[in-house]
Design brief:
Elements lengths: L1 H6 L7 H8 L2 H4 L2 E5 L9 E6 L6 H8 L5 E5 L12 E2 L3 E5 L2 H11 L7 E4 L5 H10 L3 E5 L2 H13 L5 E4 L12 E6 L8 H5 L1 E11 L8 E7 L5 E7 L17 H9 L8 E6 L9 H10 L4 E2 L6 E5 L4 E7 L5 E6 L4 H14 L5 E6 L5 E5 L6 E4 L18
Parallel strand pairs: 6-7, 6-9, 7-8, 9-10
Antiparallel strand pairs: 1-2, 2-4, 3-5, 10-11, 11-12, 12-18, 13-17, 14-15, 15-16, 16-17, 18-19, 19-20
Helix pairs in contact: 2-6, 10-11
Length: about 400
Amino acid sequence: MVARLEANGDLGPGLVREALLALDREVLMPQAYVRRSAPGEKPVRRDLLDWSEPQDRRELLAVLYGGDSVLIQHEGEPLLGRPRRGRHDGSITSMSTTMRLTSSLLQELDLRPGHRVLDVGTGAGVTSAVACYVCGADVVTLDRDPHVSAAARARLGALGYRPDVVSGSGEYGWPERGPYDRILLTFALPYVPQPCVEQLAPGGKLLVNVVTTSPSWPALAVVTRSPGGRIHAQLRAVEFAHLAGHGIKRIHLPAPLRERLETGQACDLSASRSFRSDQAPPAEEAGGFWLALDALHPGLVRHWGVEGLALGAPDCGSWMTARPDGTGSWSVATSGPRDIWSEIHQTAARWQAAGAPAVYHLTLEEGGEQRVSAGHGTHALGWRLPPPSAPADHTTSQETTT
């Protein structure tokens, strides 16, 4: 697993690599779910692989060290003492994140021996194990689910690690043990949680994925506190992100809209049009542009399985496809009340005028307002992140994902 991460450029030399090489994942995750039903088949059928069963070990090792997400909890069940049996339907409520994402964030976190670390979203305990290996005993790991916390406490202890394992709302952090030199949130939010920022020590760093309702263009917020106490924050597009936190609304392409994007056929031909354009949409690699489009013209989802560019707006049924025609022009088809092609080029013009930023400045006001910005004067480009929503129950506010 580590060799594959290195070969793909997702992991470099250093203490994180050493920690991953030393980590017996079968101790942290002695059970894991695997899907047995075919894609689209209902009900969804899953089996629980168990390390204590010799016939399961080969398949479980492949799951644990394959690098993909590992499914560890179904419908909020207790993890300790769980019998080996299959599950039908229901949802996975905790998992260990893909190692490509985990390793990249752990490296960016720049863990050092002696750091005080807050790991928000315990999950299987991979992040906590790495933090304990690198930094020592001054690690707090926080999860909304006490069953997940209980299992992580026992299994990390079996590896010789003794972090402070606590249960509560991730958005509020754990001020009792702060401030922290490093804070990592392993679920995505529409904003940066201010209580966690307040728990950041001078010289500290906080990482959290920031998302909108769309799953297509996630971002990473990097928040640092200077030795003098001043907060600096940036926002940049990323390819992969943690799952959205518990209760956060997400939109997806329904099957009929996906079919229209794949075929280019509108159900109402009077509401559609096709044309050629010499204007190319910004490249996929222009992450700063796509963040701006998502913020300024929300509600769009990209269909990544279609050649060229295919975007749909589930709320109103609008869609747009654009494919290169081989002559340097683009063949464009649009349908619905939204003119998505125009939205793209209006946003592209503003983004270019602001200097085509790949990284945005993120302003975190003490009153709670959070603003994203780039450029200056008449060429400024920016938007506000939504205000935090206060959960009614502080112990049940976030999904666990790592």
